[in-house]
Amino acid sequence: MEDFEALLNESFEIDTPAEGSVVRGKVIAIEAGQAIIDVGYKMEGRVDLKEFTNPGEAPDIAVGDEVEVYLDRVENARGEAVISRDKARREEAWDRLEKAYAEDARVDGAIFGRVKGGFTVDLGGAVAFLPGSQVDVRPVRDAGPLMGLKQPFQILKMDRRRGNIVVSRRAILEESRAEQRAEIIGKLTEGDAIDGVVKNITEYGAFVDLGGVDGLLHVTDMAWRRVNHPSEILSIGETVKVQVIKINKDTHRISLGMKQLQDDPWDSVEAKFPLGSVHKGRVTNITDYGAFVELEPGVEGLVHVSEMSWTKKNVHPGKIVSTSQEVDVMVLEIDTAKRRVSLGLKQTMRNPWEVFAETHPVGTEVEGEVKNITEFGLFIGLEHDIDGMVHLSDLSWDQRGEEAIQDYRKGDMVRAVVTEVDIEKERISLSVKALDGDPFAEAVGGVKRGSIITVTVTMIEEGGVEVEYEGMKSFIRRSDLSRDRSEQRPERFQVGDKVDVRVTNIDAKSRRLGLSIKAREIAEEKEAVEQYGSSDSGASLGDILGAALKGEGK
Fold it and tell me: Which part of the chain is the S1 motif domain (predicted)?
């Protein structure tokens, strides 16, 4: 009896499954959306059919199928076993997923729901989190087409105790993409010309699909001419022929070019645009230092700001030309090595200073507006946007320049005479005072050095006397008032006295006559000696002067 009891207890232990374990059962019936499963030891349980359904698939269960279920309790109030297919699948899935995670292997699953920050994925019984950043290599706006689709995932992190699994779809795509890129890149060589489809356009270029791998077509390699934006010559979806310029084996980056398949216009620049030749071009870009002009597609030259205008020196190029404007330019310099052409805009027009010199010779009278007043003179606006300058010293005959300039205001209309045109220095000198002639030159026109003239005393000073001749003032120093020292007294003269003097100097620059009574007396004495006496006669100076005076009295 003892042996029978031991065997009976052993059979109970063997046949009766433990609660909380996974047991194998057989589907004996399907009714009312449930599968009735016999789990042994005359125990049956019910499982909803949806627990046998994978996302996006129909229930795969039939009478007679053997399935594994999780035994929650041996018996409920109805005398049935409480079983779950989901829990059984979860336990099974965790075992399988832990093994795959350890081996860094891919696992199959299906996205079935959306949660904050990402999606939920069914990995065959275990639910994992798929972050939004791990869905695709590029941001996905609509994940609808991916929902319920069975596909591979990579496990990034898992914690069974917390029931936490994080997976990535992007890692699978990048891996396959890398394999595909490596295969395609392996077939390409630099210099190949291939067809591609424009996939994306950016500010700096376009990405071209070469059949599974993208290459960058930079904006500078699209055409020999200037391209402001890639959309000017390309559109998404367009098929283009490109050349492989460079392949980076490490990063798998491919650089492409379109202009390399076309003739380089710079090969014939020197022949087409010889130095000194004038051509019509289109302004393509304006900068602070000049304007770029397209001579032909792919060939641009720079008109430096200093070569834009003869007269507008400190003006922004945008004030002289505008974008897309057609202009005539002269070729000044060509550097084919640096692919640079220097152009001139002003060289296509005559030098306005040359034109002025031809049409306004020295002595011509001109009229213009006072453009500027400086400490050294007036700037007068003339024709062809050029200025002439009236120096302080050329404003007035009578006043000092600093005084005379006070009579002028900006905007005044002024007449003047051209006194000099320096084409090389781009300088025109004018004179206002020359309009009335030179009163000094007119006054002393017949006077020469050594001439005897009659002057009128206008002022008595301690150092001499001031005199006037034909409206011109001069000063006779005390030492020049007489040959005799005793007579060198200014007070012996009175204002209004007429005095004969000798001209000792004519200074046109200072506009002064050098005058001397003493020099006149000495000259008269010398003349008397020569006329009335000789060195051999023995006559005294008094005798000679007396004879001279008697001769004058006859």
Answer: 20-86, 104-170, 191-259, 276-346, 363-433, 450-518
